[in-house]
Amino acid sequence: MSIENIRREALSLSAQERAELAEQLLSSLDALSPTEIEPLWMQEAARRAVELDQGGSQRIAADVVRQEALALLK
């Protein structure tokens, strides 16, 4: 069964069933070992680098992020 078939089947579930499935899938990621997690982070970093290079997202200076985070905590 392909991912697309699974996606289509999952989206046909009720909202409650989708929520339960999502929770189970997310929980399964918590059980990954560091050896399994590292390549996932590398893939995500590569995806984000491509997105930046293609102009799909923009850089935000660290001091701006820090100021916004501190403002949210007040």
Short key terms for the protein model shown above:
mainly alpha, 77% helix, 74 residues, 2 domains, extended, single chain
Our measurement of the CA-to-CA distance between the termini, rounded to an integer number of angstroms, reads 49 Å
Q: If you average the pLDDT, what whole number results?
A: 94
Main β-sheet description: none
Q: Measured on Cα atoms, how large is the radius of gyration?
A: 18 Å
What is the overall shape?
Answer: extended
Point out poorly predicted stretches.
none
Beta-strand content bin:
under 5%
Word description of this protein:
- This protein has 74 residues and is mostly helical.
- The protein has 2 domains: 1-31, no CATH class; 33-74, no CATH class.
- Helix content is 77%, strand content 0%.
- It has 4 helices and no strands.
- It has helices at residues 3-11, 15-30, 34-53, 62-73.
- It is extended.
- The termini are far apart.
- The mean pLDDT is 94.
Give a concise summary:
This protein is mainly alpha-helical and 74 residues long. It has 4 helices and no strands. It has helices at residues 3-11, 15-30, 34-53, 62-73.
Task: Detail the topology: elements first, then pairings.
Layout: H1 3-11, H2 15-30, H3 34-53, H4 62-73
